[in-house]
Amino acid sequence: MSPIADRNRRFPHWRQDLTASLVVFLVALPLCVGVAVASGVPAELGLVTGIVGGLVTGFLPGSSLQVSGPAAGLTVLVFGAVDQYGLPALGVIVLATGIVQLAMGALKLGRWFRAISLSVVEGMLAGIGLVLIAGQLYSAAGLQAPASGIDKLTGLPGAAADALGSTGALTSLALGAGTVAVMVLWKRLPKRARTVPGALAAVGLATAVTATFGLSVATVEVSGLLDVIQPPGADAFGELANVGLLGTIVAFTLIASAESLFSAAAVDRLHDGPRTEYDKELMAQGAGNTVCGILGALPMTAVIVRSSANVAAGARTKASRVLHGVWLLLFAALLPSVLGLIPLPALAGILVHAGWKLIPFRSILPLWRDHRGEALILVVTAVSIVAVNMFEGVLIGLALSVVKTAWEASHLKLEIVDKGAGPVQAHLTGNATFLRLPKILEGLEALPQDRPVELDLSGLHHLDHACRTALENWAERHSAAGTDPVKVTEPERAGV
Questions:
Q1: CA 171: distance to chain centroid?
Q2: Spatial separation of the C-alpha atoms in residues 56 and 98, rounded to whole Å
Q3: Which residues form the SLC26A/SulP transporter domain (predicted)?
Q4: Got the DSSP string for 52-70?
Q5: Boundaries of CATH 3.30.750.24 in the chain?
Q6: What pLDDT does 494 receive?
Q7: H-type helices in 107-166, by residue range?
Q8: pLDDT tens-digit profile of 32-84?
Q9: What is the CA radius of gyration of the chain?
Q10: Residues near 314 by Cβ (< 8 Å), separated by ≥ 6?
């Protein structure tokens, strides 16, 4: 058998995977750099996370076609963590996140992330998108962005006024706006032209325009791949005694895991290959984040943009995502100086576009028409993230989702039958929980005090302790008025 025939037998899809890996590499390159710059860390660290996503997570079982790397969805959280605790502590946070993900995967908790309300996840991404857009508008104009999300939004009018009075700021802003325009219009070009990913084309054109016309705009600072890899030291691990940092680790774990597993579900809908094994995928993400933490790099998640590009390019096996990591490594090792030519306004434009896509504009109105409670959760989660912070905003959304679910699960009907003579009959059906106590007691206390009552609970599916106690107390009070004792028919189901 010839070497070519043997290769084709052992790797029957190598052509498709090779082509797909090049496409994913071209999509990932500008996004890795842009996410790193927006996160307030050296650009090379974004490439390190992309490389680990390919060479470590890419090899592991879980989701065969999903591609991992630094994600825009964690940019706001990473920036806040670096600003508050410093860059060395980022490695500790990411390392701890990876270890927690590994533990959760080993305990088979990955599937439970699918139980998180979709409205909370969409609200989380919308809040991130709003803060990301606001922050990158400052960067596009070459201005310093405020620290908090709400200050970023409220400060935009003042920033616009400052930009209008500065030629340099207007030039920078025009370059960022042009980058966004190229990405939006790129989809309308013929399919052959769109072989080059829109983000790469936009950055390439912005870089060429900057060099050709000698525009005075900020460009990416380059340090070198080995120089930016700084494993966390003992001082950084000492930050684990900080309760705030522990909360940040929880936020990283929750958001990175949820985004990865929701992405896996979306990618599974795009192809007919093997389905995702969620616990194994969570462990794969954990292994990748553990390595990223040791290297002091950005956290990783599965990224739907890269993953969908991988599927669309015809990838058939995990070889495509591993090879995309190889191409990122070769670029970072051989052509690092190219990064220094990229204008920061162009990267800001890419992230404004990415932030816009995180906001589910198309689904909000239909959601409001059909499920107003879910729409409210989405909006409250997004607003909370902007107004407070990422972690507390997500917790608010989760708490609201739990309350809504508990309320809807407490369906209860109180039916009163009064034939004018004899006892008044009260029938309770559904689920009697403490959330429905006001309704239950209001209806029972309105019954005539001088008439005997028959309380039928046989139609209840669930009767919690609070409701049972309240009903017993009401029965005692009613019976004490001098009428016959309340006759109670207990629920039929055992253990209710």
A1: 33
A2: 13
A3: 15-381
A4: HHHHTGGGSSS-SS--EE-
A5: 412-489
A6: 41
A7: 118-140, 149-154, 156-164
A8: 999 999 899 999 999 999 999 999 999 998 888 899 999 887 888 899 899 99
A9: 29
A10: 16, 19, 20
Angle, alpha carbons 288-382-197 (nearest 5°): 50
**Vertex 133: Cα angle to 131 and 136 (nearest 5):** 105
Report the residue count for the chain.
496
| Angstrom distance (rounded) from CA 463 to CA 433 | 6
Helix (H) or strand (E) holding 285: helix 278-295
Please state the rounded mean pLDDT for residues 186-198: 83
The pLDDT of 457-467, averaged and rounded, is 85
Residue 455 pairs with which residues in a beta bridge? Answer: 426, 488
Residue 231 Cα to chain centre, angstroms? 26
* DSSP code at position 144: P
What is the residue-wise DSSP string for 223-254? --HHHH-----HHHHHGGG-HHHHHHHHHHHH
Cβ within 8 Å of residue 350, ≥6 positions away? 30, 31, 34, 179, 183, 199, 202, 203
Beta-sheet strand order (sheet of 424-432):
412-417, 424-432, 453-463, 487-489
If you search the block for the tokens 């590994």, which residue do you land on?
102
What DSSP state is assigned to residue 496? -
pLDDT grade, residue 495 (50/70/90)? very low
Superfamily assignment of 412-489 in CATH? STAS domain (3.30.750.24)
Q: Which two tokens stand for residue 9?
A: 């037998």
